[in-house]
TrEMBL record:
Name listed for the protein in its UniProt record: tRNA-dihydrouridine(16) synthase
HAMAP family tied to this protein: DusC_subfam (MF_02043)
Pfam families registered for this protein in UniProt: Dus (PF01207)
PANTHER family associated with the record: TRNA-DIHYDROURIDINE SYNTHASE, TRNA-DIHYDROURIDINE(16) SYNTHASE
Protein role: Catalyzes the synthesis of 5,6-dihydrouridine (D), a modified base found in the D-loop of most tRNAs, via the reduction of the C5-C6 double bond in target uridines. Specifically modifies U16 in tRNAs.
Family, similarity comment: Belongs to the dus family.
């Protein structure tokens, strides 16, 4: 099996990709989407979204990072795919899954799932624009309001020459509400001669096995689950290899968070405090201690205050309920 890190907009930037791939278990990452309009973007834009381009298109741990493009114009998507290749992208990923209303209103993301022929045209245009040895992958949902066009969408992606298709097992209408409908992917996977990757609602090694079984896919993509549990990819790989695995303790996670601060200090200080809070907010699902810490620092304004809090943090007695870890 292969395990991929999902391209979560505003969440999984290069600092988080670096941290999670250092944890181990991932075979590939994808950048946050580069919005493509009617222009050819300069190299600096691709390098801003993917600093890993300066390292051969890989994270420090050696994990390849594909550049993701989002847009509705086949010509400009192709033009910018060619530019991304020129600056060193090891692969191009096409976003047809983003459910954001703003993105959808501006002819991008899952809005295109209502027009399978346009999805096909974009994939075909990009595939023809880049070298044969540059993989072109696509990420879709089951559909916009329902899955009635899934056959046409997925078949069009494959026919257009994509090397791989990732399917988030929910529609745009479903958003991120559970459950994920992994079973809808099974019939599509049997019809396609390219690899299909299952994504959505994978929070544990057990979820990964169930997603694989119901979808028929060998490969999985992890999104929010890898933020709630930084070692999830490693745990899934150990489980599939039949190995006993001990999950990270809260104390170990706290040390990882402290180690994350220096990476943020080199970036945009305006947004850095929110990145820590955002990550801690995700971890509340897995670690009860994270809930207490989040409530304590959620109103802190500076990274320095947050860093001081993390370095000196001790859980107040009585604030972890008995159902916690």
């Amino acid at each position: 099996m292969r395990i991929f890190l999902a391209p979560m907009e505003g969440v999984v930037d290069y600092t988080m990709r670096d941290l999670l791939t250092r944890m181990g278990g991932f075979d590939r990452c994808v950048t946050e989407f580069v919005r493509i309009t009617e222009q050819r973007l300069p190299a600096r834009v691709f390098r801003r979204f993917c600093p890993e381009l300066e390292n051969g298109g890989k994270t420090a741990a050696g994990t390849p990072v594909y550049v993701q493009l989002l847009g509705g114009n086949p010509y400009y998507m192709a033009l910018n795919a060619r530019k991304a290749e020129k600056v060193g992208a090891p692969g191009i990923d096409l976003n047809f899954g983003c459910p954001s209303k703003t993105v959808n209103r501006n002819d991008g993301g899952s809005a295109l799932l209502r027009e399978p022929e346009r999805v096909h045209a974009i994939v075909k245009s990009v595939r023809e624009a880049v070298s044969d040895d540059i993989p072109v992958t696509a990420k879709i949902r089951l559909g916009f309001n329902d899955a009635s066009l899934l056959d046409d969408i997925a078949g069009g992606v494959a026919e257009a020459g994509a090397n791989e298709l990732c399917i988030h097992a929910r529609t745009r209408l479903d958003g991120y509400k559970p459950p994920a409908y992994w079973q809808h992917i099974a019939a599509i996977r049997k019809k396609l001669d390219i690899p299909v990757v299952v994504n959505g609602e994978i929070w544990s090694p057990q979820d990964a096995r169930k997603a694989q079984l119901e979808s028929g896919c060998a490969d999985v993509m992890l999104g929010r689950g890898s933020l709630c549990r930084p070692d999830l990819a490693r745990a899934i790989r150990a489980d599939q290899d039949g190995q006993i695995y001990t999950a990270l303790s809260w104390e170990e996670v706290l040390e990882i968070m402290i180690g994350y601060i220096p990476a943020l200090e080199g970036g945009n200080h305006k947004f850095a405090p929110n990145r820590v809070k955002q990550w801690l907010n995700y971890m509340r699902r897995e670690y009860p201690e994270a809930e207490v810490l989040f409530q304590h620092l959620k109103r802190m304004k500076t990274l320095e205050d947050i860093k001081h809090c993390l370095h000196n943090w001790q859980v107040p007695k009585g604030e972890i309920n008995e159902s916690g870890r």
